[in-house]
UniProtKB/TrEMBL annotation:
Its main location: other. It is found in: Cell envelope. Pfam families: LGT, Redoxin. Residues 130-267 form the Thioredoxin domain. GO terms for molecular function: disulfide oxidoreductase activity; phosphatidylglycerol-prolipoprotein diacylglyceryl transferase activity. It comes from the Bacteria. It comes from Pseudomonas prosekii. GO terms for biological process: cytochrome complex assembly; lipoprotein biosynthetic process. Keywords: Cytochrome c-type biogenesis, Disulfide bond, Membrane, Redox-active center, Transmembrane, Transmembrane helix. InterPro entries: Lgt, Redoxin, Thioredoxin-like_sf, Thioredoxin_CS, Thioredoxin_domain, Thioredoxin_ResA/DsbE_sf. The chain crosses the membrane at residues 6-30, 42-65, 80-97, 109-130. This is Peroxiredoxin. Coiled coil: none annotated.
């Protein structure tokens, strides 16, 4: 499961874990302060913001090549571009400094920040292990010719699956980024799985926007989103050669956040025996030529 859905509201689990960690830290700090000490609520919130700022700045520095030509993207946090460990280090250093300057804040702030950070680390690690244990869903989709195709037909090489819709503003904004990546990375297979829209409306949209995409598929019943546990759009999934989920991204992708996700494919993996690799490649459905839809 990638999102928690309540009615029409959906929140990514990693965002929910972050909010829960802050809430836990505030509660623990408040309880400790009742036994003696200052209430650390404002200090914890400011440390949280400082850590997020450090995580964002670190991400921008690490992927500066993707921000250089469009600096306004730096303040667009919707791409989810953050590096966790620099943020954690800055948060801890700032907490130590606050505790040194204000003795009455030491215990409440220490227990609060420590409990929140420990919860976030363990929960994030567990979520990552769970995600990477999931496999490519056994879902049948429809291509532009009205033919049924299985996701497993594309297995055998690195796979990027984007769940999108024409009515979704973040989907529309990220589409040129994904189109460019598809043209620049022929070693990857990109699948654009439209959610519950007609072929005609999708074709018209792609033509009017001047988008040239390969492998546009149709999921009329939204079965793929249900299978992967994400009711939010856009959702982008990154699968390994053997169909394991490497990572996922909920929300809009920028050039930088997509580049970071694609780095997962550059990580060495255990080699597949030659006979198995040959049979997998021959059975794998190859990308169709770049066109509006196919």
């Amino acid at each position: 499961m990638l999102t928690l859905t309540l009615g029409t509201f959906a929140i990514a689990l990693n965002h929910l874990l972050l909010i829960s960690a802050l809430a836990l830290a505030t509660f623990v700090g408040w309880r400790v302060a009742k036994r003696g000490g200052e209430n650390p609520e404002s200090a914890l919130f400011s440390l949280f913001l400082l850590g997020m700022l450090a995580a964002r700045v670190s991400f921008v520095i690490a992927y500066w090549a993707h921000y250089r030509n469009d600096p306004w993207q730096i303040i667009d946090l919707r791409d989810g571009g953050f590096l966790a460990w620099p943020g954690v280090i800055v948060l801890l250093l700032a907490a130590l400094y606050r505790g040194w300057r204000r003795p009455g804040l030491r215990r409440p702030l220490g227990f609060g920040a420590g409990s929140g950070l420990l919860f976030w680390l363990l929960a994030t690690f567990s979520l990552t292990i769970y995600e990477q244990g999931t496999r490519l869903p056994d879902v049948t989709l429809v291509n532009a010719a009205g033919e049924n195709v299985k996701l497993s037909d594309y297995q055998g090489g690195p796979l990027v699956i984007n769940l999108w819709a024409t009515w979704c503003p973040p989907c529309r904004r990220e589409m040129p980024v994904l189109e460019n990546a598809q043209h620049q990375r022929p070693d990857l297979t990109f699948l654009f799985v439209n959610q519950a829209e007609s072929m005609q409306s999708v074709s018209t949209y792609l033509e009017t926007q001047g988008l040239s995409l390969s492998n546009v598929l149709f999921d009329r019943g939204g079965r793929l989103g249900q299978a992967v546990g994400s009711m939010a759009l856009p959702t982008t999934l990154f699968y390994s050669n053997d169909g394991r989920l490497l990572t996922s991204h909920l929300g809009e992708l920028s050039e930088a956040s997509l580049a970071r996700a694609l780095e997962k494919f550059d990580t060495p993996t255990t080699a597949t025996p030659a006979t198995s690799a040959t049979s997998t490649t021959s059975a794998r459905k190859l990308p169709c030529p770049a066109s509006a839809i196919c």
